[in-house]
Amino acid sequence: MNGQKPNYLTPALIGGAIAGILSGIPVLNCLCCLWIIGGAIVAAYLLGKDAQTSLTSGDGAIVGAFSGVFGAVVNSLVGIPFQAMNLAFAKRVFERIAEYGQNMPSDWETWFNRGAGPFSVAWFLFGLVIAAAIFAALGALGGIIGVALFGKKTSGTPQAPLPPPPQPATPPQP
């Protein structure tokens, strides 16, 4: 790329913000993996729009992985206010499962009572690290897809046409 590396930061921040917000909002987070890949595709598009030359799939993987990590941070921050609502929803799901299943552990309710306690920085950071790894992998995939879709640049100089293929030799006439 002419010795010049593209600026990954701005496209990755924009793509990560899109992915993190959409995957952190309840109901929309059902499509979490799609939002991550989509945010990385947006990042690859923005990277390709400003690039002077064609991008490689490595460029897409880098901007996508960065986008995924930024998306994990935004997702974790957006998810904090919805933590109690998500916990209540999961409790209702387990209550419905318990109505129909006899193999539920007898103390499953205490799991939710422990989870409804005060905010834990340790669990937040643990979840952030796990989310960053998953988001980075999916983001790299989305970045590669985005470069395949939007990263090709046409060169300014026209290429010479290819010579016509050789014609098969005709056998001599007797």
Task: Pick out its properties.
174 residues; mainly alpha
Question: How does this model look, in words?
Answer:
- The chain is built from six helices and no strands.
- The chain has 174 residues and is an all-alpha fold.
- The protein has a domain at 9-80 and 135-150.
- The protein is elongated.
Percent in strands: under 5%
Q: Biggest β-sheet, characterized?
A: none
Total strand segments:
0
Stretches where pLDDT falls below 50 for ≥5 residues? none
User: How many H/I helical runs?
Assistant: 6
Overall average residue pLDDT: 83
Distance between the termini: 59 Å
Summing up helix and strand content along with how strands pair, one would put the structural category as mainly alpha
Q: Helical amount among residues, as a percent range?
A: 55-70%
Radius of gyration, in angstroms, nearest whole number: 25 Å
Molecular shape: elongated
The H/E string reads HHHHHH
